[in-house]
UniProtKB/TrEMBL annotation:
This is Aminopeptidase N. Its cofactor is Zn(2+). The keyword Amino-acid biosynthesis does not apply. It comes from Sphingobium cyanobacteriorum. Transmembrane segments: none annotated. CDD domains: M1_APN. It comes from the Bacteria. Residues 223-433 form the Peptidase M1 membrane alanine aminopeptidase domain. Residues 441-534 form the Peptidase M1 alanyl aminopeptidase Ig-like fold domain. Belongs to the peptidase M1 family. Residues 539-854 form the Peptidase M1 alanyl aminopeptidase C-terminal domain. It holds the Pfam family Peptidase_M1_N. Coiled coil: none annotated.
C-alpha cells in the first residue's frame, strides 16, 4: 500500500468531459455521472475508475446497461473492460452526506451540503479516475429542496436554473476550463451573499460572492477586501488575470483544514473568512487576508497549471505560500511578516525535519497523501521558491514565472518543470540547487570569522552539514544562498550586503581592507532555511540587535542573545542577563522603531524553540528558566512596561498596520507586567480584558491571566464563556487559551475540558483548539506523569473512528520521543504502540504512528 514517485505512469484512459447530475438530500443523494473516455496510447488495459465506499447501482456504456459480468469492483474501484478507443460511460451511486464524518467527499455541515475533494475525496462522490493528471470539462446539474437549499453553487459559470415539482429546484453550472477532479466543488444551502465586483486588467467584469449564514454577513467585509486586493496584486506582480465571470467563496463550520481552491468556488473553514473586532484577533484578520489570497492565487499556481501527481504537491503549495507571504508583506510590514513566517517555519517545519516524519519537499513515497500536507511541503517549499527568487532577482524571477505559466497553462506539471522554467526564463543554472527537492533535513551552517591584522583581511569559513533523515543517511552539500554583511563596530556601518553562495561542504571567503575585526551579520532576511551557528559573542549580538539595518537580522541577533542566556541558565551556568534587559530597554525607548517590530523582537523565544537548542529537551528546566528571565525583565523594566502599556492604549478600533502594531506592543507590555509579579498585575490584565473594544487585547489579557492562579483568572474565563458560548469560532478561543496556558495543572484542565458539554470531536476546529493547542504546549504536554501523552492518544483513538485525517494530524507531537529523556520517551512510545494496537485503525493514523516509532 505504498505509492512511489518512481512508479508514475501516464493514465491509460483520458476523460475529456464529464456531466454530473446530483439529486441532493442529506440522507440520500443520488449521483449520476456521464464520462466521455478515450484510450490513451496503445494498450489493452480496462478502464479503471476509483471509488471509495461506492456501490454502482447502474453502469452503462454507450447508452447500454451492462450486466454484472461486464464490470467488477477491485479495492473499491470499478473495472470495465472496453474494446473501442472512445466511449460514453455512465454510473449511478447513492450517498448519505449527513453520515459522512470524515469531511471528505460530499458532506453536511451546519445545514449545508458541501464537498472537499483534495486530495482523494472525489472518489467518494462518484467513480472516476481520481488523479490530478486527468483534466476534464465539467457540466454539473444540481437539484434539491428549494426551501432548505435555496442556493445551489458549483464550479465555473451559472448557466440556467428552474423549479421542479414537490418544492424542489435545479441549477446548471458549466466550467469551461479543464480541471482535475480534486478541484470539483458544490455547495447547497440557505446562504446569504456579500456581493461585489472586480474589473480585471483587460476590462472584464467579475461578480464576486462571499456566501455565509445570514447573521454572519457583517463579518465578511475583511475577506472581501482581501479578495479584491489579491486579484489586483496578482495582476500587478505576476501579470495573472482572473478567468471566469464569477468567483464565489463559501464559509463552512466543519472543515479539515484552512480552505480549498476549487475552481471558481473556493470553500473555506469559516475561521478564515469571518472577522470583526469583537470576535477576531489581529492574527485572525491576518489569517483571513493570507488564506483568501492563498486560495485565490491557486487559480494560476494550482488550477491553470496543476500537478502531475501528488508527489508534486509543493509545486502548487510551496509556490502559492510564497505568493501569499509576499502579498501579505505588501499589505503590511515586510519586516514583521518575515519574522512571523520564520517563526512558523522553525516551530513546525524544523521540528518535522529533525524527526521521524522528515521528508523532502518532493517526497519519494507515501501511504496516505493526506499526511503530506505538511509544513515541509508548504513552508519549506515556499522557502525554496524564495531562494530561487533571491538568486534570480525580481526581474529574472518574473521572466521565469511568465515562462512557467505560459508553457504549462492547461497542463499537469512537475516540480522539475518549474525549475526548468526558472533556469531558462531566468538564465541561471540550478543544477545543484535541485537537491533542495530531494534531500530532507535542515542544513546546519557553521560560520567562523577570523581577522588577520597583518594583512588587514577577514576570512569567513562556512561549513555545512545536513543531518541524516529517514531513508537518507548520507547527504550531499547543497547550494545555500547566504546574504551577508560585515559591520564596523566603531562606526556602526557595514560594507555591502553580499549574496554568498555556499556550495561545498566547506568554503572560505576573504574580505580585504579591514583594520579591525568586523561583526558578522549572516543569513540576513533569513535568505536560506538553515540553522546557522556562529562564534559571535554576546557583545556582538547586542551590537547587532541595536544596529543591524536588516530587520530580520536584528530580530535574530536579539533572539540569539536571549537563547544564549536561557540555555546558559538551564545548564546552571552563571550568565549575564543584563545585556538582554539593556537591549530590550533600548528597543522600547527608540521612537524610530515600528511598535510591531519591537513587540516581535522583545518576546522571549518559545519553550519549544528553546527545546530545539538542547541535546535533550528538559521541559521543566526550560519553563523555569524562561519564567525567571521573564520575571526579571518584567521587574527591572516595570516602570517602562507601565508607561508603554498606557501609551499604546487604543482610541477607536482600526485594522491599520499602525493600530495592529500598537495592540501587539500593548499586549507584550501587559505580559511582562504580569510576569514581573506586580501585585496589581492581574487587576490590570482584568481591566484590559473588560475594557478592550477588540478581541486582540481581550484574548491576550485572558491568556496572560490563564498562566497563573487568581480570582481574576476564573472571573475572566466565566465572563468570556458566557459572552461567547453561542459563537463557535470564539468559543474555540476559550478552549485554546486554556489548553495553551503555561499553568502547572494544564493537563488536568484539558482533561476536564474534553468532557465539557461544548466539546465535540465532530468539529475539527474544536479538536484543534483543545488537543492541537495542548500538544503544542511543551511544558503541559510533556508533563512528567505522562498524562499529556495519554490524553492526546485517547483523543487520536476516538477521533480516528470519525475523522482519520484530523486524527492523524495529532500524531507527530508523540513522534518526537527521541528528543526527550528515557522516561518520557518510553511513555510516548507506549502511547504510539497503544494507538497502533487499535483494531480497524485508519491508513492515515497507521502511517504516522508506525513511522513515528521507527
Ligand atoms: N489545497 C488546499 C490549500 O492549501 C489544502 C488541501 C488540504 N488537503 C488535505 N487533504 N489536507 O489551499
Ligand atoms: Zn494551498
Amino acid at each position: 500500500s505504498v505509492i512511489r514517485r518512481a512508479d508514475y505512469r501516464a493514465p491509460d484512459w483520458l476523460i475529456p468531459d464529464i456531466a454530473l447530475d446530483f439529486d441532493l438530500d442529506p440522507a440520500l443523494t443520488r449521483v449520476h455521472a456521464t464520462l466521455s473516455v478515450t484510450r490513451n496510447g496503445d494498450h489493452e488495459r480496462p478502464l479503471r475508475l476509483d471509488g471509495d465506499g461506492l456501490i454502482p447501482l447502474e453502469v452503462k456504456v454507450d447508452g447500454r446497461i451492462l450486466d454484472q459480468q461486464q464490470w467488477h469492483l477491485d479495492a473499491g474501484a470499478l473495472i470495465i473492460p472496453l474494446s473501442g478507443d472512445a466511449h460514453s460511460v455512465e454510473t449511478l451511486v447513492e450517498l448519505a452526506p449527513e453520515s459522512n464524518s470524515k469531511l471528505m467527499g460530499l458532506y453536511a455541515s451546519g445545514g449545508l451540503l458541501c464537498t472537499q475533494c483534495e486530495a482523494e475525496g472525489f472518489r467518494r462522490i462518484t467513480f472516476f479516475s481520481d488523479r490530478p493528471d486527468i483534466l476534464s470539462r465539467y457540466s454539473v446539474r444540481l437539484a434539491a429542496d428549494k426551501a432548505r437549499f435555496p442556493i445551489l453553487l458549483a464550479n465555473g459559470d451559472p448557466i440556467e436554473q428552474g423549479d421542479l415539482d414537490g418544492g424542489r429546484h435545479w441549477a446548471l453550472w458549466n466550467d469551461p476550463f479543464p480541471k482535475p477532479c480534486y478541484l470539483f466543488a458544490l455547495v447547497a444551502g440557505d446562504l446569504a451573499c456579500n456581493a461585489d465586483r472586480f474589473v480585471t486588467m483587460s476590462g472584464r467584469e467579475v461578480a464576486l460572492g462571499i456566501w455565509v449564514k445570514e447573521n454572519d454577513l457583517p463579518r465578511t467585509a475583511h475577506a472581501m477586501e482581501a479578495l479584491k486586493n489579491s486579484m489586483a496584486w496578482d495582476e500587478r506582480v505576476y501579470g495573472r488575470e482572473y478567468d471566469l465571470d464569477v468567483f464565489n467563496i463559501v464559509a463552512v463550520a466543519d472543515f479539515n483544514f484552512g480552505a480549498m481552491e476549487n475552481k471558481g468556488l473556493n470553500i473555506f473553514n469559516s475561521r478564515y473568512i469571518l472577522a470583526d473586532p469583537e470576535t477576531a484577533t489581529d492574527i485572525d484578520y491576518d489569517g483571513v487576508e493570507g488564506v483568501v489570497a492563498h486560495e485565490y492565487f491557486h487559480n494560476w499556481s494550482g488550477n491553470r497549471v496543476t500537478c502531475r501527481d501528488w508527489f508534486q504537491l509543493s509545486l502548487k503549495e510551496g509556490f502559492t505560500v510564497f505568493r501569499d507571504q509576499n502579498f501579505s508583506a505588501d499589505m503590511g510590514s515586510h519586516a514583521v511578516k518575515r519574522i512571523e513566517d520564520v517563526r512558523i517555519l522553525r516551530a513546525a517545519q524544523f521540528q518535522e525535519d529533525s524527526g521521524p516524519l522528515a521528508h523532502p519537499i518532493r517526497p519519494e513515497s507515501y501511504m496516505e497523501i493526506s499526511n503530506f500536507y505538511t509544513s515541509t511541503i508548504y513552508n519549506k517549499g515556499a522557502e525554496v521558491i524564495r531562494m530561487m527568487a533571491l538568486m534570480l532577482g525580481a526581474e529574472r524571477f518574473r521572466a521565469g514565472t511568465d515562462l512557467y505559466f505560459d508553457r504549462h497553462d492547461g497542463q499537469a506539471a512537475t516540480c522539475e518543470d518549474f525549475v526548468a522554467a526558472m533556469e531558462e526564463g531566468g538564465g541561471i543554472d540550478l543544477g545543484q540547487f535541485r537537491l533542495w527537492y530531494e534531500q530532507a533535513g535542515t542544513p546546519h551552517v557553521r560560520a567562523l570569522l577570523t581577522h588577520d591584522p597583518l594583512t588587514q583581511s577577514v576570512e569567513l569559513t562556512l561549513e555545512q552539514t545536513i543531518p541524516p533523515t529517514p531513508g537518507q543517511p548520507v547527504k550531499q552539500p547543497m547550494a545555500i544562498p547566504l546574504r551577508t554583511a560585515l559591520f564596523d563596530p566603531a562606526t556602526g556601518g557595514h560594507r555591502g550586503d553580499e549574496l554568498l553562495m555556499l556550495t561545498e561542504a566547506q568554503q572560505r571567503f576573504t574580505f580585504t581592507d579591514f583594520a579591525s575585526t568586523p561583526i558578522l551579520s549572516i543569513n540576513r532576511g533569513f535568505s536560506a532555511p538553515v540553522i546557522v551557528e556562529t562564534n559571535r559573542s554576546q557583545a556582538d549580538l547586542a551590537f547587532l540587535s541595536a544596529r543591524d539595518d536588516d530587520p530580520f537580522a536584528r530580530y535574530e541577533a536579539m533572539q540569539q542573545l536571549m537563547v544564549n542566556v536561557l540555555v546558559g541558565r538551564i545548564a546552571g551556568q552563571q550568565v549575564d542577563e543584563s545585556a538582554v534587559v539593556a537591549a530590550i530597554r533600548a528597543m522600547l525607548t527608540d521612537p524610530t522603531l515600528d511598535p510591531a517590530f519591537v513587540a516581535e523582537t522583545i518576546r522571549l523565544p518559545s519553550e519549544a524553540y528553546l527545546g530545539d537548542q538542547m541535546p535533550v529537551v528538559d521541559p521543566d528546566a526550560i519553563h523555569a528558566a524562561r519564567d525567571a528571565l521573564q520575571a526579571r525583565i518584567g521587574a527591572e523594566l516595570e516602570p517602562l512596561w507601565r508607561d508603554v502599556h498606557a501609551k499604546t492604549k487604543a482610541n477607536a478600533f482600526a485594522i491599520s498596520p499602525a493600530a495592529k502594531g500598537a495592540r501587539k506592543l500593548h499586549n507584550a507590555a501587559l505580559h511582562y507586567l504580569v510576569a514581573a509579579g506586580a501585585p496589581d498585575g492581574p487587576a490590570i490584565a482584568f481591566t484590559q480584558f473588560g475594557e478592550a473594544d477588540n478581541m486582540t487585547e481581550r484574548q491576550a489579557a485572558l491568556g496572560t491571566l490563564a498562566n497563573g492562579d487568581s480570582a481574576e483568572r476564573e472571573a475572566a474565563l466565566d465572563i468570556f464563556y458566557n459572552r461567547y458560548c453561542a459563537d463557535a469560532l470564539t468559543l474555540d478561543k476559550w478552549f485554546q487559551t486554556q489548553a495553551f496556558a503555561l499553568h502547572p495543572d494544564v493537563a488536568d484542565q484539558v482533561e476536564a475540558l474534553g468532557r465539557h458539554k461544548d466539546f465535540t470531536l465532530t468539529n475539527p476546529n474544536r479538536v484543534r483548539a483543545l488537543y492541537g493547542a495542548f500538544a503544542g504546549n511543551q511544558w503541559g504536554f510533556h508533563h512528567e506523569s505522562g498524562k499529556g501523552y495519554r490524553l492526546v492518544a485517547d483523543c487520536i483513538i476516538a477521533l480516528d473512528k470519525l475523522n482519520p485525517q484530523t486524527a492523524a494530524r495529532l500524531v507527530p507531537p508523540l513522534g518526537r520521543w527521541k528528543r526527550f529523556d528515557q522516561g518520557r520517551a518510553a511513555m510516548m512510545r507506549a502511547e504510539l504502540q497503544r494507538i497502533l494496537a487499535e483494531p480497524g485503525l485508519s491508513k492515515d493514523v497507521t502511517e504516522q504512528a508506525s513511522k513515528s516509532l521507527e
